[in-house]
Specification:
By secondary structure, this protein is mainly α. The protein has helices at residues 14-23, 31-47, 74-85, 95-110, 118-129, 148-158, 174-180, 192-197, 201-231, 241-245, 250-263, 267-275, 285-288, 290-312, 336-364, 387-403, 425-458, 468-480, 491-502, 505-511; strands at residues 5-7, 27-29, 89-92, 133-134, 137-139, 163-165, 171-173, 320-321, 327-328. The protein has 20 helices and nine strands. The longest helix is centred in the last third of the chain and has 34 residues, at 425-458. The two termini are 25 Å apart.
Length: 519
């Protein structure tokens, strides 16, 4: 993706964050943002010789804010801040998370409300465009006073210190990476170190990336539910538009519409209806209540995206330079709004996955799968079929329920009780990323299982009784995974379908047979 993202004083769009974080889109600063930064920097410069203490300009930080710093030590103050705060630990954070964090911080700098020099913001532009990514450990942010440790590692790289990865993923010292890219380390001035690390940028980036992925995953969940309804000889009558108009939640309406569209033209469901072979009074909740659960998840996503929109429109720093030239301390760096949203999404993800696992389990139970072999085995007893695939699902769903426990309800005081209530939003973001990976795998196993069940029903894609959309999805799967037979190595088949879910190709295959994309 070669689209350039121009960063101005206004809000970035979520799709711009995804383009830069995930697809290496180039970035640039608008003339308006350069002018705004120049004006606010002039305000900071006037405070440098002021005898009155100004936080981050002539004082220490956090609990050391009462310490006056002489003019000649203030550059050292900024360097010391960054070096001491670059204290992360643990597994390395994904590249796209780091790039999203850097872009969001750059966007706040570009508002002109932080008091940094335009040249400092430009250094971030050059770091992003060069594909240089600081190495950051997963631990170090409490989600308050900003994502301090992660952002400090990024600022450290601007100074030519610490470890980074280059565009090719090679780890090397920051000074060497900058030199290779033709870039010079920067010397931080008053207030700049603080401005580079005082934001909710990492957790916001994770929120935006997760939201982007969940639009696809919730559509896949509807596709999976439809395939299971078909494979389990369920009824599509419960998805009727007028029924869902009686409870007009937008997400529920959209999910039901998706399932109706995917099932449209299913010969198997039509046969069931015509022959009166559907004798159950009602399908199980995991089938007939899919729109209600998937719809609630969509509503959660809609709320979360409104939070992200507000955050993208924010200038998060402490202190800030106001439009009328005041330099004021504030608490806008607190991550609670983003942390709550991240935790809320984790709850929705766990529930959608839990329902998917229940549908899969019905396929494997001979007493509930309506005429299929036990465990969808070729020769039950000799073969185990998909028995352990469901175990894998169950293990993931169990973990997703643990990951749904909110991080944001915890708070550990820090900085000698100055920072006595923190959000843990960064941790909420990391666990949500793991939860999305789990949901992807759970849905892949359901789809793999329902495709196998339909092959038992109709003999395979060439003689399909499924709808055009489910048949197209099944045909794509069969390009990568063989149909039913004696037991074989199952893990690569699960992984193959996971990739089809993750890269969007499975959704595209189903949508190719629909009049419009799924909602």
């Amino acid at each position: 993706m070669n689209t350039e993202v121009e960063i101005g004083v206004g809000a970035l769009l979520p799709e711009q964050v995804v383009a830069v974080a995930r697809h290496d889109a180039k970035v640039s600063l608008s003339e308006e943002s350069v002018a705004a930064m120049t004006a606010s920097r002039a305000v900071i410069e006037e405070l440098v010789t002021d005898s009155k203490p100004h936080y981050g300009v002539s004082t220490g930080f956090g609990a050391l804010a009462t310490k006056h710093i002489p003019v000649e030590l203030r550059s050292q103050l900024q360097r010391s801040l960054i070096r001491s705060h670059a204290a992360s630990s643990g597994a390395e954070v994904d590249r796209e998370v780091v790039r999203g964090l850097m872009l969001n911080r750059l966007s706040t700098l570009a508002t002109g409300r932080t008091g940094v020099r335009p040249s400092t913001a430009q250094a971030y532009v050059e770091l992003l465009n060069a594909g240089i990514t600081p190495v950051i450990g997963e631990y170090g942010s409490l989600g308050c006073s900003g994502d301090l440790a992660p952002l400090s590692h990024c600022a450290l790289a601007l100074m030519g210190e610490g470890e980074v990865r280059d565009r090719d993923g090679v780890t090397l010292p920051a000074a060497e990476a900058l030199a290779n890219a033709g870039l010079q380390p920067i010397e931080l001035r008053e207030k700049e170190g603080l401005a580079l690390i005082n934001g909710t940028d990492g957790m916001l980036g994770m929120l935006i990336l997760a939201s982007h992925d969940l639009h696809r995953l919730f559509a896949i969940a509807d596709l999976a539910a439809a395939m299971s309804v078909e494979g389990l000889l369920g009824t599509d009558s419960v998805f009727a538009e007028d029924l869902h108009a009686l409870r007009p939640h937008p997400g529920q309406r959209d999910s039901a519409a998706n399932i109706r569209a995917v099932l449209a033209g299913s010969a198997l469901i039509a046969e069931n209806r015509a022959e009166g072979s559907f004798t159950r009074v009602q399908d199980a909740y995991s089938l007939r209540c899919a729109p209600q659960v998937h719809g609630a998840a969509r509503a959660t996503l809609s709320h979360v995206e409104s939070v992200a929109g507000y955050e993208l429109s924010s200038a998060v720093d402490n202190p800030v330079v106001t439009l009328d030239g005041r330099v004021e301390s504030n608490g806008n760096f607190h991550g609670a709004p983003v942390g709550y949203a991240l935790d809320f999404l984790a709850i929705a993800v766990a529930d959608v996955a839990s329902m998917s696992e229940r549908r899969t389990d019905r396929f494997l139970d001979k007493s509930r799968n309506h005429g299929l072999n036990a465990f969808l085995a070729d020769d039950p007893g000799v073969d185990s079929g998909h028995m352990i695939a469901q175990y894998t699902q169950a293990g993931i769903v169990s973990e997703l329920k643990r990951l749904a426990a909110p991080a944001s309800v915890d708070s550990i005081p820090s900085s000698a009780m100055q920072e006595d209530h923190v959000s843990m939003g960064w941790a909420a973001g990391l666990k949500l990323r793991r939860a999305l990976d789990g949901l992807t795998r759970v849905l892949a196993i359901e789809i793999l299982t329902s495709a196998r069940a339909m092959d038992f029903r109709d003999g395979g894609v060439s003689s399909s009784k499924g709808s055009p959309a489910t048949t197209a999805a099944r045909a794509l799967i069969r390009e990568h995974v063989a149909g039913p037979g004696t037991d074989r190595y199952l893990a690569p088949e699960i992984e193959a379908v996971r990739v089809l879910v993750d890269d969007g190709s499975l959704l595209a295959a189903a949508e190719s047979r629909l009049e419009k994309p799924l909602l």
